[in-house]
Structure formats: structure tokens, C-alpha cells
Amino acid sequence: MIDYLNYSAEEKGEYKGVKGLFRLEEFEVEAIDILTHKGDGNPLLNPNRSVTPGVYTRLVFISEDGSFNRVIMSDTPAERKDHTDFFNRAKGRVLVGGLGIGLCIEQLIYKRSKSDRPKQLVIIENNPAIIRLMTPYFIEWTEVLVVQADVFKWSPDSCKPSVKYPFDSIWMDIWDEISDRNEAEMTTLARKYTHWKTREGYFGCWARAECKWMRDIRKAAQEKNGKVVKRLMNNKVGKTMMPSVYSNIVIPL
Ligand SMILES: C[S@@+](CC[C@H](N)C(=O)[O-])C[C@H]1O[C@@H](n2cnc3c(N)ncnc32)[C@H](O)[C@@H]1O
Predict the structure, then answer these.
(1) Each residue of 188-242: pLDDT tens digit?
(2) Residues with beta carbon inside 6 Å of ligand 1?
(3) What distance in Å separates the CA atoms of residue 193 and residue 165, rounded to the nearest whole number?
(4) Are 67 and 19 in contact (CB under 8 A)?
(5) How far apart are CA 208 and CA 110, in angstroms?
(6) Cβ(27)–Cβ(56) under 8 Å?
(7) Cα dist. 147→69, 118, 129, 154 in Å?
(8) Which of 105, 174, 188 to mutate to test the pocket of ligand 1 (most atoms within 8 A of CB)?
(9) Which one, of 7, 182, 31, 193, lies nearest residue 101 by Cα?
(10) pLDDT in tens, 92-112
(11) Which residue minimizes the CA distance to atom 20 of ligand 1?
């Protein structure tokens, strides 16, 4: 749980062209909610991403007319697990794409000892409402700089001299769902940011292995390549995916 947040903050803004309200809120997950959940959180459907009962924080968007709502980010165990590789490897000058609820900030600044913190943590976020909502909570951490920009267009040269590069660790977390469509964007970002990273530095994207896996299994299914589908279903990533992912794969007759 992110324990330094005020759980009841709200901000008006726009999400993917729709006007509405961003709300930062605490929510409770009870055991019965988990078992009736149709998605990832249900341990009967997916033991690897299930949510344990407890109190969590989430950032939701609700459209003005109430017809659409979306959880943009939460601090459930699956989200923390998805960030483990990055949290373990982040050091020195760190760049993050996507502010969300600032889970990265909590892990890298708030929970670490001073000597272990990154010396610079730059976060690129394109949504001004999310920046307005979140930045008051970590204003005291001078290592954190939030820049309002699109990760696909931003260049660190536009923030000289406050932003110094090359970065030692870069983490892109701009997606709100795991999908094979994300993989092409991840490749674009990996190419773009390689220029601003140290040679031995780390570049990672949220749930990239899963997105690649989805892309590969869809392709194999479309090509009716049963051998590859079977191999992918049984590999390390395949064993963590929900059975419902398979039903989304359209196999032409
Ligand atoms: C899943 S959340 C990020 C979670 C965050 N890493 C954390 O630790 O809480 C995705 C965020 O990326 C932002 N975003 C989406 N597309 C973006 C883009 N092209 N450039 C910058 N930020 C973007 C969204 O507004 C949202 O705040």
C-alpha cells in the first residue's frame, strides 16, 4: 500500500480524448470479490496474477457522462511484481515513462535508504491532470523531476540543464493493459531511448515478455502452426497467462 498518499484526491481532465474525472482512491478487496472476478485477479483463473485480499490504492478515470471508467494504475501485488526487475536494477540516473500513482517513486525514493536512491529520477507523463493530482505527494523528494511530455516525442535535450544523461536505467510504463499491440510501441521506444542510455544500462517495458508472447501466439495461431502454439502455451511466460487469453486468439478456419 502507498501509505503516504491522501486517498481522496480528484482532478478534472481528459483521458484518450474523453472528458471526466481522475480519482485517487483506496479500495478494499475481499476474498469473495476475488473468487467472483472474471479477470486476472481470480486465483482460480490465474494463480500468477491473483490479488490477495487487502486494502489498495488505485487511480481511476470516470467519464463525465458516467458511461466509461477505467483503472489506470493500482498498487496490487501483481503490479508490484511486474515492476520487480526494474526496482532491483534501477540505479544512478533513472528515467520512467508514465507517472500513474507513482508506485515507482514509492519504491525508489520513499522505501530506499538515502545512499541507495537514484541520483536523478525523471518521470515523463503526458497527462496534466495526473501530474496535478500526484505531484503534491512527493514534492519533498528533490531527486524527482516530473516532465509533462509524450515519451514518443520527448528528448532530454529539451530539459537541459536540469536533466542529465546518459541514463543508467530506463523504464517505460505507459500502457494500461497487457496486449500484443503494445509490442510495436515498445520496440519504437527501445530504439529511440538507446541513444540516451549508458552502454551497459537497463531498458525495460512493463509486461513486455507477456506482450511479445501474445503477439507470437496470435501469429502462430493465424498460421495454424499448432507446434508453436503448444510450445508457447507451455513455456515460462505461457504458464503465467490466463486461459482466457487463448480464447481471444482467432484461428481462421
Ligand atoms: C500504468 S500508468 C503508469 C504507472 C506508474 N509507472 C506507476 O509507478 O504508478 C500509465 C501512465 O502513463 C501515462 N502515459 C500514457 N501514454 C503516455 C505517453 N505517450 N507519454 C507519457 N505518458 C504517457 C498515463 O497517463 C499514465 O499516467
Answers:
(1) 999 999 999 999 999 999 999 999 999 999 899 889 898 998 899 889 998 888 7
(2) 72-73, 96-104, 124-127, 130, 150-152, 173-174, 176
(3) 11
(4) no
(5) 26
(6) yes
(7) 26, 17, 13, 9
(8) 174
(9) 7
(10) 999 999 999 999 888 888 878
(11) 150
